[in-house]
Amino acid sequence: MLIAKKKRRENIAEYILYLWQLEDMLRALELSPDRIRETLVEPQTDLDDQQKEALWLWYTDLVNLLRTEGKERSGHLEHTLHLVADLDDLHRHLLASPVGREQGYDRVFAPLAAELPRLKAAIAGEEGDPTAISDMEACFRALYLAMLYRLRRPAASAEDTSSQETSEERYVRDVLEVISPVVARLAAIHGAAERGELDLYKDMD
Question: Rounded CA gap, 91 and 94, in Å?
């Protein structure tokens, strides 16, 4: 809870990815309040009993949201999806506005722009619709896939990992070099605007 609040305050992108990881962690614990308390709460020796209770209640609130939204097995909470959509709106605004050019966002985005159609196709798969995936949804899904891939194969050598990857997984991993700077810059601009340090509509007619 405290980590989530800190990430939300400091970096919106890290906050989204943290909550996505937490969703999967809660599912791995079968959304069980007892298992959540035993695995995620009690080991927090730096927290007192009141703080542990607050943390456990926060986790159970997330569990209730997953159940309410029908996402017990897969999918992401609407809260995070709205944030990704907000970031996509900001992304498009920056590409079309003077402040985006002033912040150098168009230059950071340029290497990724040409890769987006292929990236969306890789994420959508054979039965999905790449055109239904926004730019930022594609970026966040790629970042999260790469995060999961590293977590699932921590002990594998680089050679073993490369041989076990599908072509889509390998492509998503390779394209992270151009995704990460875009998301980092976008998150920084978002934070500056939230803190009132940047006027997103400056010099617009």
Answer: 5
d(CA 43, CA 53): 13
The tokens describing 119, both together, are 């990236």
Q: Is the pLDDT of residue 2 over 60?
A: yes
Which tokens hold the place of 102? 């002033």
User: How far is 139 from 120, CA to CA, in rounded Å?
Assistant: 9
Q: What is the pLDDT of residue 155?
A: 47
The pTM for the full model equals 0.89
Q: Give the Å distances, CA to CA, from 72 to 27, 32, 63, 78.
A: 7, 11, 8, 13
Angle at 30 between CA 19 and CA 37, to 5 degrees: 75
Supply the pLDDT for residue 69: 97
| Residue type present at position 159 | E
Rounded to an integer, what distance in angstroms lies between the CA atom of residue 178 and that of residue 99? 21
